[in-house]
Amino acid sequence: MKTRYKIILPFCFIGLIIIYGCKKSFLDKQPLGSLSSENVTSLTGVQGLLIGAYSVLDGEIGLANSTGFAYGSAGSNWVYGSVCADDSYKGSTPTDQPDLVLLQTWSVSSANTSYVQQKWQMLFDGIQRSNEVLRVLPNVKDVSDADGKVIAGEARFLRAFYHFGGKIVFNNFPYVDESISVANNNLNVPNVDKSGKFIDIWPNIENDLKFAIDNLPEVQPQRGRANKSAAKAFLAKVYMFEHRYADAKPLLDQLISSGQTAGGQKYALVNFEDNFNAATKNSAESVFAYQASVNDGSQLNGNYGDVLNFPNGPGAPGGCCGFNNPSFNLANAFKTDANGLPLLDTWNNGAVVSDSTNLYTGNLDPRIDWTMGRPGVPYFDWGPDSKQWIRDPATNGVFSPKKNVYAQSQAGTYSSTETAFWGATSIDANNVNFIRFADIILWDAECEVEIGSLNQAEVYVNQIRNRAADPAGWVYASGTYNAGNSKYSSQTKPADKYKVSAYPTGTFATQGQAYARKAVQFERRLELAMEGHRFFDLQRWDNGTGTMAQILNAYQQVEKNRNSFYYTNPTAQFHKGINEYFPIPQKQIDVENSTGQVNLKQNPGYN
């Protein structure tokens, strides 16, 4: 994000040198630099502050070259969205990153992990930076009314984005607007009302996004900036989490018919792998993404959040560190039947994909080999994926992450060569997709299942499946990978027995709503696997029913008998009514409640 603006705003570093301390709380962030109000109360200054708010999207906020990487706050949400669900294992070795062990086994407390502390801090850093833009903006003399509205719209979009992250991770997350400041001496923002009841911040997030919709342009001068369509998409996402399908559906319908990227492209599905290739990023499918770049002189603009998530060992892409290994459960989800349809109820039964003793030899959805590296299957142009790339086979299974990794031919161009950090080759220019058009299509399919037409839901799901069925976008054992277009140049021998088909017309209507709901949810898992969404989808679909606990406990019961993370952690248990959210950091509760007044109340079930 930062480098995209450097061309037009050479002083954008203004927004990035406001470094905050934590003397009282994460809300108590007085500038420690030498900036005066005159430095920022100008169009250039407020734009610099806005860029500072965008820069937090990667989740790293100044930690990279000082106190180490904040793995727990990565913009991709791989820790919470994938590892804490059934998409992936922690990876590495059992003792590496012990806080992540606690998270993956759903045994974290409010006091025993730095990861949730990092996430909390990152979110409030983003919120505070967004609010600083809104505090400064009224005092800027050289900004037009039109430009001021756009700047305010972007700041409130970002404020909503960070609050949304807090809501889905911590649930009972305080809402902080620009009136909260050191100067106003009102830093202890409560998450409970006077009766002790938790405050619902969804309406505040909605209002910020509605303001953004009203004030943002459809086309922006840089692709990484939020535009009107992105704001509509995030408002629809909020409604989906609130189960307000009747409110989400009109927005989603509009986005499907006429939504466009910040660069002015009409939304469309593109070649699947183009969404995860730095050479083809910001395509017509990109709704909003963190803009990563490398070798631009900054050392800090790459995708630092996923620096651990590369295959490990000699000859492996990145060379380190073997985290976020896809699970056997996820690999099995890509099985298809003789007709090319998913095994909605039995995918995890019987033979196992890529298993050495009970090998599955049936059909597979071709998206599997863009989602994960599998032994013997081409890994871009690095050659066949190798079991030697698995750091600890006893706990990591046999699969490597792939959606965040670059091709060998892109090394040095889309991977970093400029930093002194130990893992320069694990820092790349792959964007982090927060929302892509496939999200919108599948959300609308959910809406159709709940309040509309099962036939239309089927049409939407088939759009996603038809793309997957296109042989031009498959992985080939016989071909040469071309990183310029994310395809193989010779397409005569697919890398496995790929077969994926659309649902026959009328299937959803014939089978009924429950079947259609299951099919849409399953499709979402296949399409968006390893993108940090899975845990939060399960959370959203649970809605107090306990299905999330059922799914994840069933997952653990099978995995503990495989060479996987749960083999060494067989007693892990997901607790209904507790583990759907993460604990508020105890240090923050202590600070906020130090006067004796309960301002910040812990989530239920955590001590």
UniProtKB/TrEMBL annotation:
Keyword Mitochondrion attributed: no
Organism superkingdom: Bacteria
Name used for this protein in its record: RagB/SusD family nutrient uptake outer membrane protein
Subcellular location: Cell outer membrane
Transmembrane domains' residue ranges: none
Major localization listed first in the record, in broad terms: membrane
Domain SusD-like N-terminal, first and last residues per copy: 107-240
Coiled coil: none
Record-stated family: Belongs to the SusD family.
Keywords: Cell outer membrane, Membrane, Signal
Cross-referenced InterPro entries: SusD-like_N, SusD_RagB_dom, TPR-like_helical_dom_sf
A matching Pfam family: SusD_RagB
Provenance organism: Mucilaginibacter angelicae
Domain RagB/SusD: 285-606
